[in-house]
Design brief:
The complex is a heterodimer of chains A (125) and B (363). Chain A has a single domain, classed as OB fold (Dihydrolipoamide Acetyltransferase, E2P) (Beta Barrel). Helices cover 18% and strands 39% of the residues of chain A. In chain A, the strands form 2 sheets. Chain A has a 6-stranded antiparallel sheet with strand order 1-2-3-9-8-5. A 3-stranded antiparallel sheet of chain A has the order 4-6-7, with no helix packed on it. Chain A is globular. Chain A starts with 6 loop residues before the first strand and ends with a helix. The model of chain A has no long low-confidence stretch (mean pLDDT 94). With 363 residues, chain B is of the alpha+beta class. Chain B is built from 8 helices and 20 strands. In chain B, strands 11-12-13-10-4-14 form a 6-stranded mixed sheet. In chain B, helix 2 crosses helix 7. The radius of gyration of chain B is 21 Å and the shape is globular. Chain B starts with a strand and ends in a 9-residue tail after the last strand. The model of chain B has no long low-confidence stretch (mean pLDDT 97). Classes of the chains: A alpha+beta (125), B alpha+beta (363).
């Protein structure tokens, strides 16, 4: 089972909300399917993101994938070290490979818990 | 979904299987970049069971092929192979294929793209009505296994009685491989030396395993379609659906060397008109970029504020350690050294026109 202290989107982003601030990243399942990561584009501090809409892009050898925000709000921090240390995503996708922190104004209605997300990953293969 | 005879072996090797042109195929085993490096430095093994394989025989096989495809079938000696295109009446590319003249000079053998095989067979069967010729789809009666990389000859020679040192590039021969009669061609889609083995159905797992047993000490590894795409792209070889498709003709794609205007193939009239008009106004070029972003299929190219082309294929090049792309570009800009921009989410990133191929092995 993946960490139960957070919620997930079926598009493989996770979101952990503490004191109105959401820390957001992508799951181990997403990282293993992307493989050979080469580029990550994250929003700057101070920009705003919208639940269900793209907040950045991640690029592997073969493809570019959009990253979808689990929440709406202002970006209060961005993991600026991560684009230069993409191996962190494979090492600690739920830890030091967090991507951004957002002051939450609303959450996506599509967020699911760890058990439902595990089942989703299993079904997706 | 169709499966090759090796599907279970791929899964056991840890491959990630994906649907490709109606087949379940391994896209990667350990990682695309690592796999590409193995092929450049040692040797890699590929299951190409999905590729279409077609026999063409009969008294008018050569005349039939002259009509079907762009290269000069009459000029192919027995045991030799040529690259060619199948066009429609408007000169648009329906497929790119390899034409093999049988070593015994008793007909031809074609290898076509999996995604176009059904359409190719339709074109061939319609055309065959006008000729004394027999078209046989042997995609399911023959498997296809490729070994590519500098150590290919050394490894393959342990499995066959054929004198591989004497087998020239784009030649093929009948041979005993792993104790059974097969055919072996010195061809490939990676820019490296290598062989493609046409394996009678049922023998594929045995041949695959024999390659591993012979190649293990040389570092032979299985290679997926992801690395195969990267390798062909570095080597400047077109991929149907990217550099060439139903909207392009072989002249603008820089494939005029595979088009011989001395015979009456479908689409010749249209190509003559293109030549008379001085081209189509665009050309296929290579691009490199200093940007961290990789130009991807469909991205617009911009010069002086105007859109001047679009990207066909883009990839990280593990061999050159940079991002590379192919693109259709306005002909007047298609000179190496021209500086352009490609657009990623409306943001311009710099790129430069370069000569292709991006990579050429030392011979």
């Amino acid at each position: 089972m993946r960490p139960t202290d957070r919620k997930y989107l079926k598009s493989h982003e996770w979101c952990k909300i503490e004191n109105g601030i959401a820390t957001i990243g992508i799951s181990d399942h997403a990282v293993s399917h992307l493989s050979d990561l080469v580029f990550l584009d994250l929003p700057a501090k101070g920009s705003s993101v919208t639940a269900g809409e793209s907040f950045g892009e991640i690029e592997s050898v073969k493809a570019v994938s959009s990253l979808y925000s689990p929440v709406s709000g202002e970006v209060v921090d961005s993991n600026t070290q991560l684009p230069d240390n993409l191996e962190w995503l494979a090492q600690e996708p739920f830890g030091k490979a967090w991507m951004m922190k957002v002051r939450v104004t609303s959450q996506s209605p599509d967020l699911i818990d760890a058990a439902a997300y595990d089942a989703h990953c299993k079904a997706e293969g | 979904m169709q499966a090759t005879a090796l599907e279970k072996i791929h899964v056991a090797l840890g491959a990630r299987m994906v649907p490709f042109a109606g087949w379940s195929m391994p896209v990667q085993y350990r990682g695309i970049l690592d796999e590409a490096r193995v092929v450049r430095s040692k040797a890699g093994l590929f299951d190409l069971g999905h590729m279409g394989r077609v026999r063409v025989r009969g008294p008018q096989a050569e005349t039939f092929l002259q009509r079907l495809q762009t290269n000069d079938a009459a000029a192919i000696p027995p045991g030799r192979i040529r690259y060619a295109m199948i066009l429609d009446d408007n000169g648009r590319t329906q497929d790119d294929i390899l034409v093999y003249r049988n070593p015994g000079n008793d007909g031809f053998f074609l290898v076509v793209n999996a995604g176009n095989c059904a359409r190719d067979l339709g074109i061939m069967r319609a055309l065959a009505g006008n000729f004394d010729v027999e078209v046989e789809d042997c995609t399911h009666s023959l498997g296809m296994i490729a070994i590519q990389g500098p150590l290919s000859q050394q490894i393959t020679q342990r499995l066959t009685n054929a004198d591989l040192a004497a087998l020239k590039y784009y030649a093929w021969t009948e041979a005993t491989v792993c104790g059974a009669p097969m055919t072996v061609s010195r061809t490939g889609y990676t820019g490296e030396d290598g062989f493609e083995v046409y394996v009678p159905a049922g023998h594929e797992p045995k041949v695959w395993q024999a390659f591993f047993d012979a190649g293990r000490e040389h570092g032979l590894e299985p290679i997926g379609l992801g690395a195969r795409d990267t390798l062909r792209h570095e080597a400047g070889m077109p991929l149907y659906g990217h550099e060439i498709d139903e909207t392009t003709n072989p002249l603008e794609a820089g494939l005029d060397w595979a088009v011989k205007m001395n015979h009456d193939f479908t689409g010749r009239g249209a190509l003559e008109r293109v030549i008379a008009a001085g081209g189509t106004g665009r050309k296929l070029v290579g691009l490199t970029t200093t940007s961290k972003r990789c130009p991807r299929q469909g991205y617009p190219l911009v010069h002086g504020g105007a859109q001047v082309g679009h990207v066909c294929s883009g990839s990280i090049s593990p061999t050159l350690d940079t991002n590379i792309a192919t693109a259709y570009l306005r002909s007047d800009l298609a000179t190496p050294g021209t500086e352009l921009q490609f657009l990623v989410r409306d943001k311009g990133e710099p790129c430069t026109v370069v000569a292709m191929p991006f990579y050429k092995r030392a011979r």
